[in-house]
Amino acid sequence: MRIRLPSFVVLRALAGLILLTIAETGLSSGAEPGSSEVRRLLDQPRADYQARRRSLMQQVKDMEAKHVEEMRAALQKRMPDSAGEFSIEPVIVLVGQDDSNLQFFEGKYRQKNEFAYLTGVEAPAAGLILLPNQDREILYLPLVNRTAAPFEEVPDGPGPESAEKFGFARVESTETFLADLFRAISDPRKMSRAHTRSAVVYTLAPGGVVASLGSDARFANFIREGAPTTQVKDLSPLLGEMRKAKSCAEIALLQKAIDITGAAQREVVAAIGPCVFEYELDAKILETFTRLGAQRAGFPSIVGSGPNSTIPHYFTNRRKLEDGDLVVIDIGAEYNYYTADITRTYPASGKFTPRQREIYQLVLDAQKAAEEHVKPGETKLSEMTHWMREYLKQSPLRARDRDGSEHSMEHFFIHGLGHYLGMDVHDVGETSKPLQPGEVFTIEPGIYISSENLGVRLEDDYLITEQGLEKLSKAIPSELDEVERLIAEARLKASPAVGSRAR
What we know:
- The structure is a single chain.
- By secondary structure, this protein is of the alpha+beta class.
- Helices cover 34% and strands 18% of the residues.
- The strands form 7 sheets. It has a 6-stranded mixed beta sheet with strand order 6-5-4-3-7-8, with helices on both faces. A 3-stranded antiparallel beta sheet has the order 9-12-13. Strands 10-11-14 form a 3-stranded antiparallel beta sheet, with helices on one face.
- The longest helix has 33 residues.
- The two termini are 51 Å apart.
């Protein structure tokens, strides 16, 4: 059977018991991992995951070593004759996603991004402990229920086969996870009257009211209550900065997701027309994702027609398209944990009206101008929105709000210009730092004029290189005449009923 972490109440009680009964033995490390040149996990080299863990451990080790030196200097300044010594033992711990939330991913298990990023492991309820000062890393997997084999896939379990597969010295059972964790936090062999040793635990410890309700926050609180003298630090900022720069394998996965998303956009072009329902287009999108190998959508598809095109985050997808509508299609396939994010805007009738053309062209020109504006090592993502508002302000075009007041175009640009892209559609990482080679992000200007039921958004995905921008989604058409031609060609190939049947 699968071994899951017990309830929080039981965990709290168990923590105290473990701290009182910790054995004198330390965590076992076993032999060094074997060669990893041909092993791949989730379509990435196993060595990439090992390198990420080493990098993370070194960063934490350096941070705590610096902290120790600062503490030692402060103590010597206050008490010059002090002979006491102290040290900090950092412990990095992560708990993988249990399988109790399958319903949120259409019945398919999905590992937590942070756990997948560091391990390539998809096994539910897995655990990870990294000990930077000892250069040791331990993966924990649930025991395998062999009796379920005729009915279910047999997952990876603890033992040497999993150790070789995932590139760890040893893979232990999750039954020992909590005992090993609290042994690492409080090892009595490292305590003496002359030597004070304290542990610092790095884990996912999100703040805020909503985040405090999640499993990561509950696990962090469990550690705080089980080891009240132990400091708990949030690992998210370190991992966020690491995840910003994509490896060659990550970029290849993103490109695959983008190509699948482009194919789904072409399916929309072939199906779009008056009297088609938004949910029919949504179904076409999801079918294409699955048919081409995507595990799921990276986020709920946005199919907004007419008045719904003016709502940037519209997910209902229930309206029937009408002649004269614009339709905003904001979608992204997820391929092996990496998601695309592509938006196109189409005329339901097949032809843009003059007003629609001028607004669309402004948005397209704005995107191209933003592409030219971005410079590696100089441009900050956090500053791009303000720059775009100033650009749109220079347009001679005007529109009125629902209250009749006239405004220049920046008034109708109501969201940010872009975001990082990766394992999350709005990927992690500090946006106030200059963009660096290897980072992937979106540029998505939009104009939303609710008084005219007119919304236009164009969004593409870009890779920063040493030379500048590489448009990963360049194969997906966005020019006005090209969009109209594609719709016309698709209708010629389709049956006469497509886009014109009565409801």
